[in-house]
Write a structure and sequence with these properties.
Blueprint lengths: L13 H17 L6 H10 L8 H8 L2 H14 L20
Helix pairs in contact: 1-4, 2-3
Length: 98
């Protein structure tokens, strides 16, 4: 399945992809993706220190729901930004190799 060719969803901004990565990190830690809008919003609010968003932005993004989080996390894995066997990383090339 080609994840990058999902045409029925609007494209996500880089900031939204970064938030999806953080929500996916919660899946890694808690072994569960937030499945309801409220749970996604709460997860985003918990991570607000790293990527501050207004409560309105959090609520708007959380309404995208669990499926968008799952698709986004899969897309980030395909791009090499998330390694499902390790903690997600925000930047490529941070492994310390030259």
């Amino acid at each position: 399945m080609d994840i990058m060719n999902v045409t029925h969803q609007p494209p996500l901004s880089e900031e939204q992809l970064r938030w999806i990565e953080h929500v996916h990190q919660l899946e890694y830690v808690d072994h569960a993706v937030p499945r309801r809008t409220g749970a996604v919003a709460m997860a985003l609010a918990m991570l607000d220190r790293e990527l501050p968003m207004s409560s309105r932005q959090i609520a708007s993004f959380a309404r995208m729901g669990h499926e968008t989080v799952r698709r986004g996390a899969d897309a980030l894995t395909e791009l090499g930004l998330i390694d499902r066997h390790r903690r997600p990383r925000l930047e490529k090339g941070s492994s310390g190799t030259a």
